[in-house]
Amino acid sequence: MSTPHIDAGPGAIAETVLLPGDPLRARFIAQTVLDDPLQVTARRNMLGFTGRWQGRPVTVMGGGMGIPSTAIYVTELARVYGVRRIIRIGTCGGLGEANLGDVLLAQSASTDSRFNRMQFGDHDLSVCADFGLLRAAVDAAVVQGVPVRVAPVFSSDCFYDGDPQLLDRLRRHRIAGIEMEAAGLYGLAMREGFRALAILTVSDHIDRGEQMPADQREQGLERMARLALACTEGAD
Ligand code: HPA
């Protein structure tokens, strides 16, 4: 069993997948928070690891950057490996009141990508987080003492340039963060029938030109991973 982009064997991928963008972050998370992590896929160096968390199997795998890359992995995980929950853990640029290091739970994801429109007759698809995962993440944040904000985010296809008025439009609509994957993940969740949530740490502030130092990024990653794991507890 394998797909064009994932070479894990049958049963090697858990029903719950944590999906950072960077495969080396996937390895860091697997080695930091999972018991007995084993590398299960490495095609194109997009590393994936399966281990156990509180006795339950969990996979952590990189998804790359942007909706097209994320969509390839997510589609194959859902269709071929039967994955039922995908929690993106990543970073975003903060807007407005968001502060560096804040954790956003992406309730909805607007986008400039045509990815969902291509599947939906060019209509607007209102993509949003799975309510059960979102609620569980809020509950877990309270238990773990992690301040989180449930917020709308924006997934852009352009890291550089793009719509010169985009940031003003996002502020005008009180969107708290900008990243590049959540809208594709949420749209796929609706079409493929899995549960999805994006947990994002504000790694840089667009308005204030601030950036998080590397060591804090690592801490943020572990914090998101622990939230993501806790919110799969008892989920469906
Ligand atoms: N834009 C898009 N994606 C991001 C950003 C950003 O400013 N920061 C972290 N991920």
Task: Kindly list the characteristics that best describe this protein.
7 helices; 10 strands; 33% helix; Rossmann fold; globular; five-stranded mixed barrel; alpha/beta; 236 residues; single chain; binds hypoxanthine
What does this protein structure show overall?
This protein is an alpha/beta fold. It has one domain (16-233): Rossmann fold, CATH 3.40.50. It is built from 7 helices and 10 strands. Strands 5-8-7-6-9 form a 5-stranded mixed β-barrel, surrounded by 4 helices. Helix 2 (66-79) runs parallel beside helix 6. Hypoxanthine is lined by residues 91-93, 156, 159, 178-180, 203-204, 206.
Q: Flag low-confidence runs.
A: none
Query: Got a strand count?
Result: 10
The small-molecule ligands in this entry are: hypoxanthine
What can be said about the biggest beta sheet?
A: 5 strands, mixed, barrel
Mean pLDDT: 95
CATH T-level fold name: Rossmann fold
Percent of residues in helices comes to 25-40%
**What is the spatial order of strands in the main beta sheet?**
5-8-7-6-9
Sheet-strand content, in percent, reads 25-35%
What's the helix-strand series?
EHEEEHEEHHEHEHEEH
Q: Quickly give the CATH architecture.
A: 3-Layer(aba) Sandwich
**What is the overall number of helices?**
7
As for the number of domains, it is 1
The CATH superfamily is identified as Nucleoside phosphorylase domain
Between the first and last Cα atoms, what is the distance in angstroms?
27 Å
The secondary-structure class comes to: alpha/beta
* Gyration radius over CA: 17 Å
Shape: globular
**CATH classification, class level:** Alpha Beta
